[in-house]
């Protein structure tokens, strides 16, 4: 019976994948303000709430202003001005229907990726990837949202 329980546990935990890659080791100085570039899904709201609880001001859009600059007489450039220096780009795939949701409200992700981008340097500072069950999926709950929040929190000084 003990071997069966151990085998079952290995099968369950073997389905989850989580990795955090810190690309730039230098800690961020300044206010904890971050914008989300993500679909408006219930699981993105959970990430947003987790960031807010960790002391971040979370903006819903990475840019809100459209800027037009005349470069030369023959050339004009248009671009979106960033609302904040740091943007968390989030993408993922998890079935949203009740047949695939966890009883406690969690999600089973095919993949979940979050990249923290510095808009001034156009550089990715860190990358968090994961798959499997999110929080609130007993008895197989994962820590996908917590991993993203922890990585972002750890990026600041």
Average pLDDT reading: 85
Radius of gyration using CA atoms only = 19 Å
Quickly give the structural class: alpha/beta
Low-confidence stretches: 1-14
Number of helices: 3
Mass-distribution shape: elongated
The count of domains is 1
Order of helices and strands: HEEHEEEEEEH
For the report, how would you describe the main beta sheet?
6 strands, mixed
Strand content: 35-45%
Widest β-sheet, arrangement of strands: 1-8-7-6-2-3
- Helix content range: 10-25%
The overall strand count is 8
Briefly characterize the structure.
24% of the residues lie in helices and 38% in strands.
Which key terms come to mind for this protein?
157 residues; alpha/beta; 3 helices
Folded structure, characterized:
With 157 residues, the protein is of the alpha/beta class. 24% of the residues lie in helices and 38% in strands. A six-stranded mixed beta sheet has the order 1-8-7-6-2-3, covered by helices on one side. A two-stranded antiparallel sheet has the order 4-5. The termini are far apart. The N terminus is likely disordered.
Draw up the topology in text.
Layout: H1 2-14, E1 17-22, E2 33-37, H2 42-53, E3 57-59, E4 63-70, E5 76-82, E6 86-93, E7 108-118, E8 123-133, H3 144-155
Parallel strand pairs: 2-3, 2-6
Antiparallel strand pairs: 1-8, 4-5, 6-7, 7-8
Helix pairs in contact: 2-3
